[in-house]
Every structure is written in C-alpha cells, then in structure tokens.
Write a structure and sequence with these properties.
The chain has about 375 residues and is of the alpha/beta class. The chain folds into 2 domains: about 1-170 and about 350-370, Glycogen Phosphorylase B (Rossmann fold, 3-Layer(aba) Sandwich); about 185-330, Rossmann fold (3-Layer(aba) Sandwich). The protein has 17 helices and 13 strands. It has a 7-stranded parallel β-sheet with strand order 3-2-1-4-5-6-7, sandwiched between helices. It has a 6-stranded parallel β-sheet with strand order 10-9-8-11-12-13, with helices on both faces. Strand 2 (about 30-35), helix 2 and strand 3 form a beta-alpha-beta unit.
Amino acid sequence: MKIATIVGARPQFVKAAPVSRALAARGIAEVLVHTGQHYDPQLSAVFFEELALPKPQHHLGIGSAPHGAQTGRMLEAIERVLLAERPDAAIVYGDTNSTLAGAVAAAKLCIPLAHVEAGLRSFNRAMPEEINRVVADHLSALLFCPTEAAVRNLKAEGITRGVHRVGDVMYDSVLYNVRLAERRPSPLAALGLTERGYYLATIHRPVNTDDRERLGRLIGELARLDAPVVLPLHPRTARALDAAGLAGPRGSFRPIGPASYLDMLLMERHARAIITDSGGVQKEAYFFGVPCITLRAETEWVETVAEGWNTLVDADPARFGAALAQLSGWDGQRAPFGTGSARRDLYGDGHAAEAIAQILLEPPMAQDGS
C-alpha cells in the first residue's frame, strides 16, 4: 500500500510525524509531498530535522501568495505528483490551503482521501480555515476526528460514513516530543526566564495581523502585563509589526525569532499562561495544564473552553483584563476560568496515529473511496 501525505505548514509537520512513524511500523509506503506553504527554515526545515520526519520526496516550493493564487498553484503541482505516484490513498491534515489543494487534487483524480483532524468547526465562514476544513471533510472517504464534538459536527452536515473518532495526533506528538525536548538545553535560561515567571504569546492569524489598529491594541495589552511576554514571531506577524511601527520590545512585550517546535513545547509547558490565536497552541496549553487566553471570537476547540482552561477574549481589553483577573487567583491545578474542574483526557490516549494506520489497512478504505 502506498499513501501520499500532503503537508505544507508548521502544524501539519507536527501532526504528520506520529502518523509517518505508525505507517512505517506497518510497512505502508509513504510519499511525502511538501507544498512549500511554510518556507522559512525555522517554520519548515527545522521541523523535519527535530521531528525525524523523512525528507519530502516532492517539495513543490509554492511559497506565499494570495489565497486563490497560492491554492491554484498548489492544486496544479499536487495533481502532477499524484498522477506520477498513483498512491492508493492521500492524507491531508488540518485546515490550511495545502489541505484544500490536496483534497481537491485527490478527489478530482478519484484517489481516496483521508482527513486527519476532521469535523472541527468554528462556524465562522469568514475564516479561510473554516472553508478549507469544510471542503476537505465533504471530499473525504475517511474522516479521522479528534473529539466527540467533531463527530457530532460531521453528523449535523450529513457525514456519517467513514467517520472515526481516533483521538488527536497532536497529543501523540506532544507526548513523544516533550521527552526529547527535556533532554535539550532549556530555552528559558537563554531568554532570562524562570518557570511560571512569564507569559507566552503567539499571534499569526490575518484577523489580528492585517488590521493595524487591532494589532496595536493587542500589543498594547501585552506590553502592560505584570511579567515578560515572549512572542516568537511568525513571518507574517514580523512584517505586520514592522509596517505598523510596532517592531521591537516595549514594556513587558518581548518579540523573539521563530522558536523550534521542541523549544516551543518547553516554553508552553513552563509559562504562567499562554496568549494565542493559534488552534494548535490552544490544545497544547490544555495538554500541559496551562491556562490559555485566546485572541479570537471563536474556537474549534470548544472543549477547552467548556472545561474552563481556555477563554475567548477576541481583541476586547475588558475581556482580556477579566481573564487576567481570574488568573491572579489560580492555584496551578484546577481550571482557572469558570468550572474549577481538574483537567481531563479529552483528546484520546496518545495512540491516535496507530489507530489511523490500522484503519487505512482495512478494506473499507477502498470501499468508501470507490
């Protein structure tokens, strides 16, 4: 059996790594296709090295472009690869333009498609990611869901065939890689930080970077916090800060260069709290039992909010301040936002990748994709 794995962005490298190991353990041949959506070495090459991912057999080098142009170039290039490789199935991850292009290319060629992280919904169609994940789900023969909520979302859209709740491959990846990270020199010392003595922030979504007034408001809030706020810079964020005249440290705000995945895990694990607009970072905060303040109006990871470990503040200073006030009395153990509950294992048992590989080997894969 031959599987084409289509990735292009930093979160997808993280998700693909445990699945690649599981495929190899079962003797399934994998052709890795990297679209080049993330091309900065700190967002791409370093991940393949750190996560021990096989080097991609096909690097398409698409790079950055407006959504339509980027997706169109990816679609054309992925189609050529799939025609040459003729895999038995294709796997896409998450909700990026690489996901969308890979899904459409496979569907057009009648290659059975598997979507890892299927069923997530923000219910905000203004988000490009929401369009990408909805289309990928409706084109997929196998839909690998991380949570029961994701299964319910698919059922509400009439998708019940080929749906499997397997758990979250990101949880697999965190459990595996945090052990590797702990063997390395800590990034905290190099940054002059102490455990629980800083906030970790990430900002990269267009809703936050492309509106100068909104971005300035967010940076202003971060600069006023009572401990250092470390922000590893995504290239889009770095450009936006430069354009808005906000580059460089101010107050508590301390921008740094892009962090490697292993360093990022350690910074997440030991932060006082995480402030982010990233879906993946919201989950990693939950895995580590670190409070999360999300700079969005909605989230795909509704369980983290329901459990009281995550709170949505958008770019509202009042809501941001209220979240910080709740954190001031946090005991370090129970959920800080509302419920006061202990953290539960919501995202599986750390063996989602093995479940995915096993299901791919079963006959229904061919049947569902026919």
